[in-house]
């Protein structure tokens, strides 16, 4: 399975960038992973909906016909690490070849993206910056693969 994490805006904090690189290395033995950054929609705070629409169109341009998309969203379903590992296993078992996690920018997702029949997953009831959410997602992907491989990272 190929996994892609798509984020609006590039991480600016060096510790986040280092963490993303580290988890990318650790995930290599398990899965082909790509982290992709889309440009911010620009504009001002008064143009929130227009900005989200512009950013949403950028996500839609990336779609592949055989892709399973998961939106990271505050109102999404929450999983324990074990449940998330089993969810990944289920996607693999049913033949999902391309799995993409979309992480919205600072303003969130456009209504067009939210209205699609894509699964929504929440990393926590807490709110994280979009760059921190990416790091947490990568950590949970690594943890899930360790769980599935019966490795000791998960404790």
UniProtKB/TrEMBL annotation:
Broadest EC class?
transferase
Source species of the chain? Mesotoga infera
Q: What is this protein called?
A: Ribosomal RNA large subunit methyltransferase H
Identify the residues that bind S-adenosyl-L-methionine: 72, 104, 123-128
**What does the subunit section of this Swiss-Prot or TrEMBL entry state?**
Homodimer.
Family per record: Belongs to the RNA methyltransferase RlmH family.
Q: What is its main location?
A: cytoplasm
GO terms of molecular function: rRNA (pseudouridine-N3-)-methyltransferase activity
Which UniProt keyword terms apply here? Cytoplasm, Methyltransferase, rRNA processing, S-adenosyl-L-methionine, Transferase
Q: What is its EC number?
A: 2.1.1.177
Q: Which domain of life is it from?
A: Bacteria
- The UniProt transmembrane annotation reads none
Recorded name of the encoding gene: rlmH
Leader peptide range in chain numbering: none
What lineage, starting at the top, does this entry show?
Bacteria, Thermotogati, Thermotogota, Thermotogae, Kosmotogales
Q: Does the keyword Cytoplasm apply?
A: yes
Function summary: Specifically methylates the pseudouridine at position 1915 (m3Psi1915) in 23S rRNA.
Where it sits in the cell: the answer is: Cytoplasm
């Amino acid at each position: 399975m190929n996994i892609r994490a798509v984020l609006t805006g590039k991480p600016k904090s060096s510790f986040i960038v280092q963490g993303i690189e580290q988890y990318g290395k650790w995930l290599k033995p398990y899965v082909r992973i790509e982290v992709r950054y889309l440009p911010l929609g620009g504009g001002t705070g008064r143009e929130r909906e227009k900005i989200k629409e512009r950013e949403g169109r950028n996500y839609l341009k990336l779609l592949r016909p055989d892709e399973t998309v998961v939106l990271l969203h505050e109102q999404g379903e929450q999983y324990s690490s074990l449940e998330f590992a089993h969810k990944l296993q289920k996607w693999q078992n049913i033949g999902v070849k391309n799995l993409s996690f979309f992480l919205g920018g600072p303003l969130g997702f456009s209504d067009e993206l939210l209205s699609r029949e894509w699964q929504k997953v929440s990393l926590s009831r807490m709110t994280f910056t979009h760059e921190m959410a990416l790091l947490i997602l990568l950590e949970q992907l690594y943890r899930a693969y360790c769980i599935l491989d019966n490795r000791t990272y998960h404790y």
